Amino acid sequence: MEIYQATIEDLEGVSDLFNLYRIFYQQPSDLEGAKTYIKNRLESKDSVILVVKDKQEYVAFTQLYPTFSSISMQRVWILNDLYVDAEARNRGIGEMLLHKTKDFAIKTGAKSISLESAPDNYVAQRLYEKNGYKKDSQFYHFDLDLAE
């Protein structure tokens, strides 16, 4: 099993996983849209995608977006997407991705990694807490939906 930063050569495999990830979050399947989105991210280098392959099969990915903390004046990575294919679950792959993400964040001088989880995604929450992530009780999270 190998974990590495995806390049344009990984477009097909990552796009397939990204489409499955979106389906998991009740979005309609849109493989062409997923491919366009991932291609744009890889070409513009505005996100970092870590991918897991097992015997040449793409089994998981995580996508990180950079931001900054004005208070600490340091980089922060937003772990926006993490997905392990259903056939590859319960093998520790999600935890391996979290470790690789942490290593990457440390190497890039980041202050922290931030993520969100659906309130009912207890499996993911347990994984995050097991790996040192703490639920924020200091700040509220607000969104402004511009599509409305």
UniProtKB/TrEMBL annotation:
<dbReference type="InterPro" id="IPR016181">
    <property type="entry name" value="Acyl_CoA_acyltransferase"/>
</dbReference>
<keyword id="KW-0012">Acyltransferase</keyword>
<dbReference type="InterPro" id="IPR000182">
    <property type="entry name" value="GNAT_dom"/>
</dbReference>
<dbReference type="InterPro" id="IPR050680">
    <property type="entry name" value="YpeA/RimI_acetyltransf"/>
</dbReference>
<keyword id="KW-0808">Transferase</keyword>
<dbReference type="Pfam" id="PF00583">
    <property type="entry name" value="Acetyltransf_1"/>
</dbReference>
<dbReference type="GO" id="GO:0016747">
    <property type="term" value="F:acyltransferase activity, transferring groups other than amino-acyl groups"/>
</dbReference>
<feature type="domain" description="N-acetyltransferase">
    <location>
        <begin position="1"/>
        <end position="148"/>
    </location>
</feature>
<protein>
    <submittedName>
        <fullName>GNAT family N-acetyltransferase</fullName>
    </submittedName>
</protein>
